[in-house]
Amino acid sequence: MTLLETLALLTLLATVGFGMFDIAWKIFNNKK
Predict the structure, then answer these.
(1) DSSP secondary structure letter of residue 31
(2) What stretches in the chain show pLDDT beneath 70?
(3) Helix, strand, coil distribution of the chain in percent, nearest 5
(4) How far, in Å, CA of 14 to CA of 32, rounded?
């Protein structure tokens, strides 16, 4: 795997992880 592919994969994982966190945070705030 090249450095560029590794960078792209990390960016994708970070985006997905942040998206999941954002959705979970909105659900948590709606339950209050």
Answers:
(1) T
(2) none
(3) 90, 0, 10
(4) 28
Handedness of CA 22, 27, 30, 32 (dihedral sign): negative
The dihedrals phi and psi of 2, each to the nearest 5 degrees, come to: -80, 170
The token pair that represents 15 in the structure block: 């985006």
CA distance 11 to 13: 5
The number of residues in the chain equals 32
Tell me the two tokens of residue 26: 């909105």
Q: Which tokens sit at 31?
A: 């339950």
pLDDT of residue 22: 97
**Amino acid in the structure at residue 27:** I
